[in-house]
């Protein structure tokens, strides 16, 4: 086994790898950018080396600097995590040329699976079923559109170098083909430096089921499947293992195909073979198709670890250190059911717009596994993936595990940024999901209900006012709080709240009686429990995962608030302006797309807030803009 390794990553996965290393007595070296000098992963490792400025191209993607850091610190091997350099065969070769070990498959195996088109060809040859479509070299728009006609609509255009749901466009009608092709190709170019695409038949009622494989270069086994059908914009949201409705027969067929795929390329280490399953008529062993193989550890690996009782990072380290795979297929047994939910700093109700902010509070219930790369006080910056944590539960049955997941989400305290916590909790309450009726369209179909935000109840508002007004500080048994004025107004941004202290834990709030007690970060108001965080003049209060943020207003500041009308389009996050579809003087209708921005390598379309005429355009394609910048203004309404 290695005595010291370097982890070429950040965030939760770097922390996750460090944890296993600690358990095995392996020393760790972290690398970090300037934005991550005080990040959790950099502080957890035994040593930390600075790579460069915040942008990934100047830090986490700098293979040369990473290899040098490993050599300088005496690390013997490099664990790439996921993303960044994890599937970059040139990096693997450079690591090996420097006399170090890459903890992962060979450059050759990565290359074989690196491009979706080449991988599909290879799998066809290995006898693995693939999605019908076109994956050849000819790329002219006319030719591709003919191919799409032949395949039959709807089709899915995929950037062949794509990953993480980027560079994909579903097309329903021939007349939309060219615009979609341009979009997929542009995203492929900007995210992966490759504009080429392939076209697939769109599978109706698709389920995403993937098989975890593990190889030692000669032999491979599989560790069962994960169902990742719960997706938004082709990105996984909640994953589970086993897949609902999976039969032994189908698992054996998919497992054998996945092992065939891994052995065909002499695979060493942890890998995932992703299949798309046509579930229009239940699960059937003749309706799964190879989509791609991810030649690395995946974000959702913990659900497999939970049901197989393994530590996949430990396996990765052992195989990379030259130990053969000791387990056989028969050693792998699946126990119970596991879920993982991905907690993100993003606004689900605004089409999952990435968010930033300093997490003033972050706490998870103790009984569950939460893999996180940030702590309370840490900042979610615009430079990297805005994941906050993965919440993982394991129960004896799917029903039990789902109940645990719901409870875990409801007991999670997060404040300081917009998050998808309420959305995740809403999914755990979704009836179809509870019945195991999952497909990749579920979230889009029920988007409005899943992202509906109820107004805060009177009790919730009262609890918020009591918390930010400092009323809850005194414990009930301490008797009357002499220092609190008996009648006070708490000026919240939602309106002034009148609080009268009647006795210990008893208040009259805006004329209603409220009994409220605080216990740490919990406040119980009229019998209902809320989690809360007070940070300066801001109180975040969570009612079963739905949070509301109230600000206590300083009356002197109020004048500054006025002035921002509904006549302009502002940047909802820091990013790059890609396209501008309008010009001064142009008439626009509410909802029409005006500006395309890119942030976190994803495109976001900003639409007209109302009908009107463009008065001024304050940006151009290629401009870097900050959160809140005014990009366009409309003529005032007549
Ligand atoms: P990426 O590498 O960007 O993750 P994938 O090829 O793995 O892209 O596809 C991501 C998701 O897109 C899948 O999980 C599935 O939900 C959906 N998808 C992919 N191919 C198809 C298809 N042919 N028909 C319907 N949905 C698809």
Automatic annotation (TrEMBL):
Its cofactor is biotin. Coiled coil: none annotated. Residues 559-635 form the Lipoyl-binding domain. InterPro entries: ATP-grasp, BC-like_N, Biotin_carboxylase_complex, Biotin_carboxylation_dom, Biotin_COase_C, Biotin_lipoyl, CPAse_ATP-bd, LisH. Keywords: ATP-binding, Biotin, Ligase, Nucleotide-binding. Residues 1-448 form the Biotin carboxylation domain. Residues 120-321 form the ATP-grasp domain. One of its GO terms (molecular function) is ATP binding. This is Acetyl/propionyl/methylcrotonyl-CoA carboxylase subunit alpha. It comes from Pontivivens ytuae.
């Amino acid at each position: 086994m290695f005595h010291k390794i370097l982890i070429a990553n950040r965030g939760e996965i770097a922390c996750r790898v460090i944890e296993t290393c600690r358990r095995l007595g392996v020393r760790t070296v972290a690398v970090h950018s300037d934005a991550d000098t005080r990040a959790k992963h950099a502080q957890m490792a035994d040593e930390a080396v600075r790579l460069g400025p915040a942008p990934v191209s100047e830090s986490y993607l700098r293979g040369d600097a990473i290899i040098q850091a490993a050599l300088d610190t005496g690390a013997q091997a490099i664990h790439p995590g996921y993303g960044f350099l994890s599937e970059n065969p040139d990096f693997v070769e450079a690591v090996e040329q420097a006399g170090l070990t890459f903890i992962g498959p060979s450059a050759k195996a990565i290359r074989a699976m690196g491009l979706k088109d080449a991988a599909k060809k290879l799998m066809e040859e290995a006898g693995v079923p693939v999605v019908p479509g076109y994956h050849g070299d000819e790329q002219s728009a006319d030719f591709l559109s003919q191919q799409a006609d032949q395949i039959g609509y709807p089709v899915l255009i995929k950037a062949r170098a794509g990953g993480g749901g980027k560079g994909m466009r579903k097309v329903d009608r021939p007349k939309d083909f060219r615009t979609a092709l341009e979009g997929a190709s542009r995203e492929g170019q900007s995210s992966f430096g490759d504009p080429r695409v392939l076209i697939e038949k769109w599978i109706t009622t698709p389920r995403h089921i993937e098989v975890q494989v593990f190889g030692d270069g000669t032999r491979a086994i599989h560790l069962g499947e994960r169902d990742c059908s719960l997706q938004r914009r082709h990105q996984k949201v909640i994953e589970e293992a086993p897949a609902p409705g999976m039969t032994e027969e189908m698992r054996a067929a998919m497992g054998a195909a996945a092992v065939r795929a891994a052995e065909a390329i002499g695979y060493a280490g942890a890998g995932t073979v992703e299949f798309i399953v046509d579930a229009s008529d239940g699960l059937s062993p003749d309706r799964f198709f190879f989509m791609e193989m991810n030649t690395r550890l995946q974000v959702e690996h913990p659900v497999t670890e939970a049901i197989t009782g393994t530590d996949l990072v430990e396996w990765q380290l052992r195989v990379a250190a030259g130990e053969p795979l000791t387990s056989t297929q028969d050693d792998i047994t699946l126990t119970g059911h596991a879920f993982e939910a991905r907690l993100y700093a993003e606004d689900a109700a605004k089409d999952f717009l990435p968010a930033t902010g300093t997490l003033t509070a972050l706490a998870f219930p103790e009984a569950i596994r939460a893999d996180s790369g940030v702590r309370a006080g840490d900042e979610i910056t615009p430079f990297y993936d805005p994941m906050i944590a993965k919440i993982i539960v394991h129960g004896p049955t799917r029903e039990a595990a789902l109940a645990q997941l719901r409870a875990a989400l409801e007991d999670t305290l997060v404040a300081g940024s917009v998050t998808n916590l309420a959305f995740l909790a809403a999914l755990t309450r979704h009836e179809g999901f509870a019945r195991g009726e999952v497909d990749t369209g579920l979230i889009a179909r029920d988007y409005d209900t899943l992202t509906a935000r109820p107004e805060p109840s009177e009790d919730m508002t009262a609890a918020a006012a009591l918390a930010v007004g400092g009323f809850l500080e005194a414990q009930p048994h301490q008797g009357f709080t002499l220092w609190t004025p008996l009648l006070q107004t708490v000026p919240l941004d939602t309106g002034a709240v009148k609080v009268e202290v009647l006795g210990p834990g008893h208040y009259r709030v805006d004329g209603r009686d409220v009994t409220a007690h605080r216990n740490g970060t919990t406040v119980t108001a009229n019998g209902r429990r809320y989690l809360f965080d007070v940070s300066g003049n801001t109180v975040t209060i969570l009612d079963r995962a739905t949070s509301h943020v109230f600000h206590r207003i300083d009356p002197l500041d109020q004048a500054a608030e006025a002035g921002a009308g509904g006549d302009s389009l502002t940047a909802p996050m820091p990013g790059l302006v890609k396209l501008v579809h309008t010009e001064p003087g142009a008439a626009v209708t509410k909802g029409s797309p005006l500006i395309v921005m890119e942030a976190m390598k994803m495109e976001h379309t900003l639409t007209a807030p109302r009908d009107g005429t463009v008065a001024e355009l304050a940006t151009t394609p290629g401009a870097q803009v900050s959160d809140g910048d005014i990009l366009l203004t409309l003529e005032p309404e007549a």
